[in-house]
């Protein structure tokens, strides 16, 4: 699938391409407390065969000494029965087959928790029903236990977190809202021991999006300046912590009710976008030096922030977008003209605009996990729902009031 096509048709920040070349990855609820330091005695070894640069880590959850020989033939999943909103098309199935026959490089995971994403309900409404009905379970983000490592870097009993990209969601008919799912090993990382299962389940989609936006596309370095439009979104929140870990200065926008939240995450400067047009506030602030990276984390369809960016984005800076979201062909036509087509002599913007395409990358996942283990990135959990209450979880997510990830516990026993 073509990157520009998927982003402008589905308005997502996820790419459908399964692999890329290796590279050096608003609301009222309070942020969760910083997780406790990891126990020193918990240890595991990451397999060196996946990459020559992998090293031993001391604080990841060790594999349990248990062989899973009791994998059932069927399972409970939340299946998509057609196109539409989750409340109308998502149904709980008690007899979905467990896809235990693995391809080379795949592992089978017993899912313990899944986190919901806007892309989940967007694709439910976007894709045709005949495609959706083939898929065994909805959603992408998960945490769980490997029950068949299939000669990969993971062993039976490894506790992991990871994600299923939309292309694999469609081609393999696998999803995260299931008791078991199969996915490529490169989509997984060992779960750091200083976070719980429910906390880790929300790392991959938003966390990798933030990491790749700043390090792969933005090339953000220590001492540089970053602006995040949508600092209280999941992507924006992770981006704040990642940028601070990289040694950057961070300014963000959010509503006033979320100022304390984003500052607590590490934001150095705050702009209330509800007071006046944000581009006017930024131009008036006359940042010195100007921002090196501008991360559009809200999916805004209005191109104004990019068009006006020479007033606050450095000449060699980059404007990174998670992908415009909205409706109306006229709006998209205006966006395309102002961002891609208008030449500079006709008022076009002399700045780089880049579309974020999140891709599986084991090294990015490993580095993200390392930051979590070191306490530089903390979990962002808004709320946790029982598996049977998945539709209520979607209500929370779609209310646009969640700060952090909305999580569904597939296994009621986990924390």
Automatic annotation (TrEMBL):
Residues 88-408 form the Enoyl reductase (ER) domain. This is Enoyl reductase (ER) domain-containing protein. It holds the Pfam family ADH_N. One of its GO terms (cellular component) is mitochondrion. One of its GO terms (molecular function) is oxidoreductase activity. SUPFAM superfamilies: GroES-like, NAD(P)-binding Rossmann-fold domains. SMART domains: PKS_ER (SM00829).
């Amino acid at each position: 699938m073509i990157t520009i096509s998927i982003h402008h048709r589905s308005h997502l920040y996820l790419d459908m391409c399964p692999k890329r070349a290796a590279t050096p990855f608003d609301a009222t609820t309070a942020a969760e407390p910083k997780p406790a330091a990891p126990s020193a005695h918990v240890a595991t070894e990451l397999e060196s065969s996946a990459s020559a640069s992998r090293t031993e880590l001391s604080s990841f959850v060790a594999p349990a000494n248990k062989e899973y020989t009791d994998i059932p033939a069927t399972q409970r999943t939340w299946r998509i029965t057609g196109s539409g909103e989750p409340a109308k098309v998502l149904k709980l199935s008690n007899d979905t087959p467990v896809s235990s026959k693995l391809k080379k490089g795949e592992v089978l995971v017993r899912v313990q928790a899944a986190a919901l994403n806007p892309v989940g309900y967007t694709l439910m409404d976007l894709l045709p029903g005949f495609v959706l009905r083939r898929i065994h379970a909805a959603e992408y983000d998960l945490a769980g236990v490997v029950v068949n490592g299939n000669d990969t870097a993971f062993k039976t009993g490894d506790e992991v977190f990871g994600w299923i990209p939309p292309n694999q969601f469609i081609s393999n008919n696998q999803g995260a809202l299931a008791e078991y799912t199969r996915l490529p090993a490169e989509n997984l990382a060992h779960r750091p021991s200083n976070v719980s299962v429910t906390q880790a389940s929300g790392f991959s989609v938003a966390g990798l999006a933030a990491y790749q936006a700043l390090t792969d596309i933005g090339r953000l370095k220590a001492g540089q300046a970053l602006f995040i439009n949508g600092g209280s979104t999941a992507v924006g929140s992770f981006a704040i912590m990642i940028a601070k870990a990289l040694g950057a200065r961070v300014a963000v926008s959010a509503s006033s009710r979320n100022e304390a939240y984003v500052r607590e995450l590490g934001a150095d400067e705050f702009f209330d976008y509800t007071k006046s047009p944000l581009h006017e506030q930024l131009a008036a602030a006359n940042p010195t030096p100007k921002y090196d990276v501008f991360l559009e984390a809200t999916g805004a369809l209005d191109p104004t922030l990019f068009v006006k960016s020479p007033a606050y984005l450095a000449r060699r800076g980059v404007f990174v977008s998670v992908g415009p979201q909205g409706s109306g062909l006229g709006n998209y036509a205006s966006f395309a003209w102002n961002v891609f087509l208008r030449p500079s002599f006709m008022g076009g913007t002399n700045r780089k605009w880049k579309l974020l395409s999140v891709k599986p990358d084991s090294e990015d996942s490993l580095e993200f996990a390392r930051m979590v283990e070191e306490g530089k990135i903390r979990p962002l959990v808004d709320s946790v729902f029982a598996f049977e209450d998945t539709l209520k979880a979607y209500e929370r997510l779609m209310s646009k009031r969640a700060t952090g990830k909305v999580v569904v516990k597939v296994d009621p026993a986990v924390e």
